[in-house]
Amino acid sequence: MLIKGVCVVLLTAMEDEKIVLLFGRKLGMTRLHDAMGGSVATTAIHVDPCTVVQLRSLSRDGYSAISVGAEQTEPFRLSRAENGHFVRNGCKPHKILREIRVPDSEKYQPGEILDLSLLREGQVIDIVGVTKGRGFQGVMKRHGFSGGPASHGSMFHRRGGSYGQREEPGRIYRGRKMPGHMGGKRRTTQNLRVVRVYADRGLFFVRGSVAGANGGLLMIRTAKKG
Question: Whole-model pTM?
Answer without folding.
Answer: 0.79
